[in-house]
Amino acid sequence: MLLQGNQSSANGTGSDPAVFFLTAVPGLEALHLWISIPFCSVFTVALLGNCTLLYVIKTEPSLHKHMLHFLAMLAVINLLLSTTTMPKILSIFWFNSREISFNACLVQMFFLHSSSIMQSTLLLAMAFDRYVAICNPLRYTTILTNSVIAKIRLAALARAVLLMVPLPFLLRRLPYCQSHVISHCCCQHMAVVKLACADTSFNNVYGIIVTLFIMGLDLMIISLSYVKILRAALRLASEKEQFKAFSTCGSHLCAILVVYTPVVLSSTIHRFGCHVTTHVHILLASFSLLFSPMMNPIVYGVETKQIHDQVLLLFPGKKLLG
Questions:
Q1: Are strands 181-182 and 99-101 parallel, antiparallel or unpaired?
Q2: Distance CA 70, CA 157 (A)
Q3: Rounded Cα–Cα distance for residues 106 and 108 (Å)
Q4: 27: helix, strand or coil
Q5: pTM
């Protein structure tokens, strides 16, 4: 029976879900080495950018501010998001190492989706920070105390963990008696659910509810915050004060676009792009995992003067874009 189970696993089928096989980009196997070049480059930029950002914020006392504390947390999440997926993706591209154990797949899925939820929660917290700074500037230090910041951190972690803990248990209860081949670069929830040979209605509904609860609710609250920020900024007396108010929100607005645009684009193409090929879906979804970890340090490094100046001190003779 052991021999039979091993032979079935090698063919990507069988009832034992001990092993799955990731296809990376099906149909483009001959180009995997070339595809790995931009992925590896972006991964390297993401690692260097976020590590530099953390080092600068940690070592420079003038950067120990609430908004930049949130930014440091975002950098940690970006590192977690990229390191959870990219090493395995690159190993598939370089060494055709497609095999992943069922438990490792569940762990990767948990950290992948948890990181995305924490990222969204932090963007919401940063929007609240900007709202208080512009709409209630005199009460900023009394509202956003160190205790409140610690509670926000804990809430971001708890929200992600509580929403994602059910996923491994929901997937473990399903039988996988058909293919064990995941048509993706990583273990995303719905990519694994499609392999089950049982009713997956609950998994589908749970995934939709979590997505709407995270993206829908967070984006709605962020939008309402910026409506109030816009109204408060336009009531300021001079154009100089208005420009200063808007400029403090510039990097955060860029971060929102960097995080949500690839997700919305990928989701839209996945649901309505019937004529778009599978490898385009997978490439876009995979690259979106790296886009925000790469871009966030660049956006904040260019837009935030304190960080810009400190990075220039680290690399004398260099000049950031912008």
A1: unpaired
A2: 13
A3: 5
A4: coil
A5: 0.85
Whether pLDDT at 318 is above 60: no
State the amino acid at position 101 in one-letter form. Answer: S
Amino acid, single-letter form, for residue 255: A
Residues 130, 136, 140, 145, CA torsion sign:
negative
Question: What is residue 238's three-state secondary structure?
Answer: coil
Alpha helices in 12-145 (DSSP H): 32-59, 66-95, 102-135, 140-143
CA distance 229 to 133: 9
Q: Which residues contact 105 (CB under 8 A, 6 or more apart)?
A: 20, 182, 187, 192
Q: Please give the angle made by the CA atoms of 58, 287 and 155, to the nearest 5 degrees.
A: 45
Q: Distance between CA 162 and CA 122 in Å, rounded? A: 16
The two three-digit tokens of residue 126, written as one number: 């940063």
Residue tagged 């790296």 (tokens): 290
Q: 12: pLDDT confidence band, cut at 50, 70 and 90?
A: very low
Q: What CA–CA distance (Å, rounded) separates 60 from 44? A: 24
Round to whole Å and give the CA distance between 80 and 298: 18
Amino acid at 135: C
Integer Cα distance of 153 and 155 in angstroms: 5
